[in-house]
Amino acid sequence: MLLLLVVKAVCLLTFAKFVWVVKTVFSSLRILWQPRQISSNYKFLPFFLTIVLVLAIAACNHNTPQQETSQIQTDKSTLAQTPIETKTVSDALGKVEIPVQPQRVVVLEENVVLDSVLALGIKPVGVMYCRDCEENFRGIPNELLADVPIVGSIGSQPSLEKILSLKPDLILALTWLKNSYKLLSSIAPTVMIDFPKMYDFKERLRYVAQVLGKSDRAEELLTHYQNRIQKLRPQFLNKLETKTISVIYLAGSADVFYSYRADFLGYGQIITDAGLRLIQQTQKERQLTLSIEVLPEYDADYLL
What we know:
8 helices
């Protein structure tokens, strides 16, 4: 564009100088003009000057289309985005091609995936929240996501319009949204995570880190976690070595509760890593729905 302006400016300056010369010549001729006495050598001078003027203008305009075409091509080349480097990862539904370093991530979950994303230092551009929970994001301070747009609530379908407006380059979701996979993947590459199969929080952190290109950061976090466990373990064992611990989840009503296998949720893994005795350690089922009558069977020195 700049080159085109320079060329046109030169043409205009040349044309202006030419007009000034023509005007000067005609002024001189007017003074010397004597009808019937002018030499025959000059009687075609006005016609000649007119031809020269037309040729000069044509010369300036002759190069313009080529220059404009060249400039358009240059602009297109400049505006064309550099091809995004991609990689292929495996998810719950197969394989998906995603950016190597995604920058705008939408997380369609409010707990087990979202915590990994935040821990890795990435702030999502859109999230879902838990509408029926005491905390919008279970276990995650709301202030960490205060200015992040909400694109739906857990248990319902996310708003595709809102997600589209956020222009994500990656969508992370759990498999309960697999019926929406086709629509989601038409907006951005979508990675589906099967939580019941990827229940180990360390494994899940490593996987999310691999997807986001943050594997080094994940190993730093896990090393830090292990160092804290090693420091706390002697303190716990001195006081709680002979004690038992039980963790239960209450349902909406007071007469129903849930018991989860020790290694299924993060709390059980942490208690086990600390060397403490969890009653659910012998539970084989991933989840048990129990009535209040059997609660005494899950009693312990410490009931959480």
